[in-house]
TrEMBL record:
SMART domains: HTH_ARAC
Keywords carried by this UniProt record: DNA-binding, Repressor, Transcription, Transcription regulation
PANTHER family, sorted: HTH-TYPE TRANSCRIPTIONAL REGULATOR NIMR
Example GO molecular function: DNA-binding transcription factor activity
The protein's name: AraC family transcriptional regulator
Length: 251
């Protein structure tokens, strides 16, 4: 079976490190949720939910006012079918409606037959839904790498080159090139671009203009940000936000 909650958060809210006995699906109806584990962080939006497997230590934070549905599902009976790691799930119309229905059904007066049916349909969505564009920022384990990542995460507009960043953590450019590729699976250029786009999505969801977001995350124009955004998400910032607004208006 499952439990479901509709939660409201304001900008700056945080949920400290914790783990769940059941798997958790985090779906943003409005705004976003940043879910962080020891390996990096994922962004849940109205288009991309995040599945967190049972037992995984993680925390959450919110950079803008957000309305979130969390669904905890007992996957013990079907452990092979659901993802066993943090996974981005594309939010279809059906998945969104099932999440709303789960919130309505859970409670003392719950119809257990209907709840069981919703649970089974949600499980099918988890195993069959198209994987969404990964709004995931891997952070690696090496201390020097994590220091550089912390600099950039705190201020994505920092213009420093990798060589300049390496000198700040008493390392070399060559070492950091190797660490980025080995521990994040991305080159430094790819990683920085993804970071700027994902943080840009958070700011777009908070209502900032494309130009304001572009300048805030380190681009000189809305056009250059749009090119990077399209490389990461497959669509322009305006097309992406239009899709978000349509999803938010469905309920």
């Amino acid at each position: 079976m499952l439990t479901a909650k509709r939660l409201h958060f304001t900008a700056g809210d945080e949920v400290p490190e914790h783990r769940h006995e059941q798997g958790q699906l985090t779906l943003a109806l409005r705004g976003s949720a940043r879910l962080t584990s020891q390996d990096g962080w994922w962004l849940a939006t109205p288009l991309s939910a995040v599945w967190t497997p049972a037992g995984l230590l993680h925390q959450a934070c919110y950079t803008e006012s957000s309305e979130i549905i969390t669904i905890h599902i007992d996957t013990a009976q079907n452990p092979v079918l659901v993802p066993d790691c943090l996974t981005q799930i594309s939010v279809t119309g059906l998945l969104r409606e099932l999440a709303h229905e789960a919130c309505c059904l859970v409670g003392e007066q719950a119809n257990h037959e209907e709840l069981h049916l919703v649970t089974q349909l949600l499980m099918r969505q988890l195993t069959r839904s198209t994987r969404a564009v990964e709004l995931y920022i891997p952070e690696g384990r090496d201390k020097r790498l994590r220091q550089v990542i912390a600099f950039l995460r705190n201020d994505p507009a920092i213009p420093d080159t990798l060589e300049q960043l390496a000198s700040q953590v008493f390392s070399s450019q060559r070492t950091l090139i190797r660490l980025f590729e080995k521990e994040t699976g991305l080159t430094f250029t790819q990683w920085r671009e993804r970071l700027r786009v994902v943080i840009g999505i958070e700011r777009l969801l908070a209502g900032e203009s494309v130009l304001a977001v572009a300048l805030a995350v380190g681009y000189q124009s809305a056009g250059s940000f749009s090119v990077a955004f399209s490389r990461v998400t497959g669509q322009s910032p305006r097309a992406y936000t239009s899709q978000i607004h349509r999803a938010e208006c469905q309920r």
